[in-house]
Design brief:
Elements lengths: L1 H58 L18 H18 L4 E8 L5 E2 L4 E4 L9 E11 L6 E10 L2 E11 L10 E3 L2 E13 L5 E6 L5 E2 L2 E10 L2
Antiparallel strand pairs: 1-11, 2-10, 3-9, 4-8, 4-11, 5-6, 5-9, 7-8
């Protein structure tokens, strides 16, 4: 009888071992599955972060590399800058669309243009001599402006109310870093039509803000409005 009991006990132990091995296998598989799931979530998060970063970089279209227009901000000679501004003004005058009868430029502070510093343009008296007019915005910048474009907010004001509101994207250079518009030396001017056939008396003033992601935009020298007789 003793032998039979021993035989039964051994058999019971033999039957329970596969059960323990199966449980261990399941635990290992569950752990591996959890690791794979965690890695998958991490990879998805990384891809999402990369996509978000790419979208943010494209918003202002920053030039990261450009051999012709390197990203630097050296101290320039005031006299040289003034002479270049005179030259570019003369060049811009020859490129102004036919029918332009007035223009108003605001000089940007040498330290930069902040979002809290709007440019206010009162409508000129000369518009009373036409039936309707177009409005073009002009941006003057130097060779070291670090972005491909300049985003603007334009508020059209009548009395004390903003009656119209526009978002304007002024493309200053192409994907290869070549500046558009007219230019001479290290200064450039880009003009863009933003309003057509405006009836006389519709607006009292126009307020322009920059809408870049950075709080202060540097290397922009002037922003102006040109008034053109509508065809």
């Amino acid at each position: 009888m003793t032998a039979e009991i021993k035989t039964t006990t051994v058999s019971a132990e033999a039957e329970t071992k596969p059960t323990e091995a199966t449980a261990n296998d399941k635990a290992v598989k569950a752990k591996a599955t959890g690791v794979r799931a965690t890695n998958s979530r991490a990879a998805t998060t990384d891809r999402h972060a990369a996509t978000t970063a790419t979208a943010a970089d494209n918003e202002d279209r920053r030039m990261e590399t450009n051999s012709r227009h390197p990203l630097r901000n050296p101290r320039k000679s005031r006299l040289a800058a003034a002479l270049c501004l005179v030259a570019i003004s003369l060049l811009a005058a020859t490129c102004t669309p036919g029918g332009a009868f007035d223009s108003d430029f605001k000089t940007i502070d040498a330290e930069g243009w902040t979002k809290s510093s709007p440019l206010v343009f009162l409508q000129p008296d000369s518009i009373r001599g036409v039936d309707a007019y177009d409005i073009a915005v002009s941006v003057r910048h130097d060779n070291y402006y670090p972005y491909r474009n300049l985003l603007l907010i334009v508020d059209y004001v009548a009395g004390d109310k903003i009656v119209e509101h526009d978002s304007v994207n002024v493309e200053l250079c192409d994907e290869y870093g070549d500046w558009g518009g007219s230019g001479l030396g290290k200064l450039f001017q880009k003009q863009m039509l933003i309003k057509e056939r405006v009836p006389v008396g519709r607006y009292d003033k126009i307020v322009v803000w920059h809408n870049m992601r950075v709080s202060k935009v540097t290397n922009v020298t002037d922003v102006g409005l040109t008034y053109i007789k509508s065809k």
